[in-house]
Amino acid sequence: MSQGKKFGTFAGVFTPSILTILGVIMYMRLSWVVGNAGLIMSIGIILIAHIVSISTGLSVSSVATDRKIKAGGIYYMLSRSLGLPIGGSIGITLFVATALSIALYLIGFAESALVVLQEPFGIETVTINHIRIAGSLALFVIVTIAYISTSIAIKSQFFILAAIVLSVISILLGTSEGKSFDLSRVDEMESSFFVLFGIFFPAVTGFTAGVAMSGDLKDPKKSIPWGTMLAVGVGLIVYVALAVFIYYSFEDNLGAIMSDKNALIKFGWIPVLVIGGIWGATLSSALGGILGAPRILQAMSVDSITPKIFAKGKGADNLPDGQAGEPRNALILTFVIAQAGILIGELDVIAEVVAMF
Q: Which DSSP string corresponds to 120-160?
């Protein structure tokens, strides 16, 4: 990326972070968590998860203000603070987690998209193969966008942010009166604290999407602390507020949100706006992963931790300070890992795997 295309705090850190935080888990699993856990335990899960993200965010911010930050995001910070062996081992784990999170977001997108497209396409029953196909097509589209231009990918996120804001407003103005929900699977749900926490936790890790853009920022020392902590703080407020709102909105019909994962779509004042928010959030979160994961792998390859082939980038000859350019080789490996995750086809399974990494 050329020097003229560097990004500031809002575009480079806050926007990709908040779009990933307010993603598939918020729309398609938060109501399920509230229905199964109740209000107090739900808020407990949200707060405990955010204690982890706030602590990590403060650590990242501390390192970012202490030294010059180049491409590689959290990996670069760790490797320069703790050494290449520790930084590399954590960096590989972080890369795999980020790549698999792309599958998480796109499976969520496929689930919601198929609900809308099921009737027009004459699909009688949505199967796991339908989810795999829809997720794979979406992955191909966003990889193509990232491959063509990072700048285009970043700019598209502003429109998506507007869609998410409108969808949240639609949910807050919604009502369950006169609306029917699928209650057929209430008795099948797992409700242990650790299962619920494992599925919810990936929602709070989205701030790494902004940190991963460290090599494309005008002033990483300023942008990473401000953008990261602001995104984590806004995410915490939104999640707690939505949990309280959802609980009291469905207090007399918790079975609806325990079984119907599309309850918020039906509940919304204008369902189309909620659908637009879900699609925007899931696709933008996946796009954030597509932008971030290759840069982590590229930075590790520059340090000879992973194969040198992934260090190569388009336009590197025109960049100063030995910058590596657009990580297109690393993008291809990211695509392969994300596609493998999509073939699993189950959002809850992927969420727990991502939480583990």
A: TTT-SS--HHHHHHHHHHHHHHHHHHHHH-HHHHHHHHHHH
